[in-house]
Write a structure and sequence with these properties.
0% strand; globular; mainly alpha
């Protein structure tokens, strides 16, 4: 119970910080846009992502967490485009020609249809990099023993948060907003 509360509090702090960063960069408007369909897709993709991402932590910690945001963007794009047709896309559909290494470029150009050297692409890439740097800093501030169960669960919560931020950024880019219903 205590560990569950710890992980939830860690994730809440992290998501607030990431939301602030994205809002300051005009990639969101202070609200984490989300859909249960999109969150459920993360649950299906997470095991394969975690298997790839964990291998990159030591050498490329920022990449290891950042790529989850690109997956969030791809899933939100699929959700908007034709969810009934695209909801069963496998993890392999997210990988670039070089597998995990160029997943970001593949998602940005081949799934989202963004021009690689455009101002919009550069802004998204920079925002995700800044968010990933902040996420890695949050992990380091916890002073967790590497390769421990707690390190794994904090990493899992971190990549889930990055996924949710990426999905929210894409939903916002596509024009979605949250409104209070009367």
């Amino acid at each position: 119970m205590e560990d569950s509360l710890y992980y939830t509090m860690f994730q809440d702090r992290l998501e607030k910080d990431l939301l602030k960063i994205c809002t300051e960069r005009e990639m969101l408007e202070g609200i984490l846009l989300q859909s249960q369909d999109i969150d459920d897709k993360w649950n299906a993709l997470a095991p394969e992502y975690m298997a790839d991402g964990v291998k990159e932590i030591a050498a490329y910690p920022t990449v290891s967490v950042a790529w989850a945001a690109y997956i969030g963007m791809a899933v939100a794009c699929w959700w908007n485009r034709d969810w009934n047709r695209l909801k069963n896309q496998p993890y392999s559909a997210l990988l670039g020609p070089n597998g995990f290494d160029d997943m970001d470029d593949h998602i940005m150009s081949d799934i989202l249809g963004l021009i690689p050297d455009s101002v919009e692409t550069a802004g998204i890439n920079e925002t995700i990099r800044v968010c990933a740097d902040a996420a890695v800093a949050h992990i380091r501030q916890e002073h967790i023993e590497p390769q421990s169960p707690r390190a794994f669960y904090v990493y899992a919560r971190t990549v889930q948060s990055m996924f949710r931020i990426g999905a929210a950024m894409e939903l916002y880019r596509l024009g979605y907003e949250m409104r209070k219903l009367n």
